Amino acid sequence: MPLLQANANTAVSSNTITETDIKADTNTAPVAGTDININTGTNSRASTGKTEKSLKIMENPPEITLYEDDITATSYKLQPVTINGEVNPVYSCYNSTLTKDTATLNGITDSTNVFAIEFTTNCQEFIFKSSSFFRISVDEGKGYELTSYEGYTENPYVWACYKVRFSEKKQRNIKIECTLKFWGVYLQEGDTISKLEREANPKALFVGTSITQGIYRYSNQCNCLVGYPMVVCNLLGFECINNGTGGTGYLTKGATTTYYDRLVTAIENEHPDIIFIEGGPNDVDRYDNNDIVAEAVRCHAYIKEHAPDTKVIIIGLYHHTGYEYLPVKHIDLNKKLRQEALKFGLPYIDLLTGDTIAGDGTVLTEGHLLSADGNCYITGNGNVSNPTGNGNADIYVDTDNYHPTPEGYKFLGLKLSAEIEKIIEYEK
Fold this sequence. Notes:
alpha+beta; Rossmann fold; Jelly Rolls; 2 domains; 20% helix; globular
């Protein structure tokens, strides 16, 4: 299956991408409304234009409320797994399997990953039980649209019931994305529910740090629903495997494992169609740059040997400031990681300079090093609690002066989506 051949029932069906010339405004936050847009990609040498991306938000979303009453006797429950531990045939479940009894993502006990429950129903309202961050998308004939960007939870570690009520009863496709546990849907008698039949889209594996994982607000909250991998997958039609883990890197284990170990496990178990590796900012202050690059080469070599047909794109080193404020060691590491990626023929999306380079070395997007030129990713040196007025960091960098805000993750995801699609289209 071609990587960007999205099925008609996915959210990407309503977000067809067209190319026209434009320059990005990276100093302005996305405007709230029915569509969350960003214009990306300038000075392309291989293409005459840029890509406009849009996350579709429902104009009239359902009301989603905490349901604290007893479930009535006229409601019936549809659990996500059968007694044999198989996914209940009234649901589709993508990204991983649900396990028996706990109905949790297989092997995952925190909110690093996302699984999606999908079904079609004619009800006006339904109730579901979850212990999770969750987000609901609805397809009423125009492709999936998000009910909200950030999603919702009362408490991600406590079981609770939520009521979803629409303005009218009619046939809809529903997708519930969860980060922890899902315990089933309650419907009124007479309402119908059935499996939404579609082929799974290509699997996208994202390996990285807390920037990939989706940490924000003093690192005490992880909601990977807002992380850049989910934005990319929603727009480009991938099934998302978020393997970002805070405090890790090419050489830095943190509380878990390094990139290499996680790559080996994920390739063996998930068989991804495309792999994204985020550049290793946790390594740069701990290890010699040459040692970090040597480990990156080890990762590239493993993929080339054990998954030679898998598309790989390297996402460069993240930093919370614009280029002119970068430490010299960060600039040097980013340059070396870029050089080694290109030696393996791997495309490189440079978050520090704004460049996007195809695997053959062709510059697809030429960035600008000065914040005033507006084509880098993070610009300036402020954050939301200490704005400096010299770049988008005032909006996109959180109070810990490192991680992106939810708006910052959205911004990264929208820009990266445009560059990823540009790479894939160029290298077909």
